[in-house]
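I have been asked to look over a protein record a colleague put together. Thanks in advance; the entry in question is below.
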Amino acid sequence: MGALAGHFGRDVDRGVAKAVGIIESAARDGVDLLVFPDATIGGYLGDLRAPDLDELPPALDPEGPELSVISQAAGDMTVCIGYTEAAGGLRYNAAACVTGDGVLGHHRKVHQPAGESLAYAAGDAFAPFDTPVGRMGMLIDYDKTFPESARALATGGARIVAALSAWPASVTDRAARLPADRQSRLFDLYDCARAAENQIFVVSSNQTGVMGSLRFLGQAKVVGPGGEILATTRSKGGMATVSADVESEIGRARRVLDHLAELRPDAYHSGQVQQ
């Protein structure tokens, strides 16, 4: 499993070519699952609070040539990659999971922070899907802040969750050093918590560098089903890779305490005040 931290900007052709080169390099290294950041193809917004609506990332047809090229390059590898999707006259912050056989899974970001709703429509579902590396699901950015997102995928049988991000440092209280930024702490916390509470693998990618007023954190990582960080790029660009027997490791994590089997949905009622 490989989680990428890297910078991808507005130039679609350049982004596709860069992604193909990374896929080819990962294939030589024996990577079976490669997770690119959110907005790999076409870049992300330059400002979360007041997006420039005249300088939005280009919206792409999911059946267009860009994903087709990524799919062809993937071959036997399972590749998750982010882009802006054009559909029904709307724009979505989206991700696709592909192999050489085509698109296996698709996700539109559901949870929207700050002013992102000015630039994108929101998705409305979390749907796991089958891949050569096992049953998976995808989250984008802010989705992983909400436990219900990963839980919906895990209860649907996902063993691996790909968390694709363009996650910046704090926009209101930025620290002088990225590792000290509060968003740096939260980014790691959410990755580890979502893995541990569902006893699954989380493969978390992120953008690096700067886009407009946003400075991205990096911190790509692979987290095991006990919530332990198995590999990380920290704040630098690069790829965090881990070899694991997914089924064996999840089985070991759930041997005594199986969180999903021990859920009590009948007790989870919000809005009730006990007298």
About this structure: The chain has a mean pLDDT of 96. The two ends are 50 Å apart (CA to CA). The helical segments are 12-28, 65-74, 147-155, 182-198, 246-253.
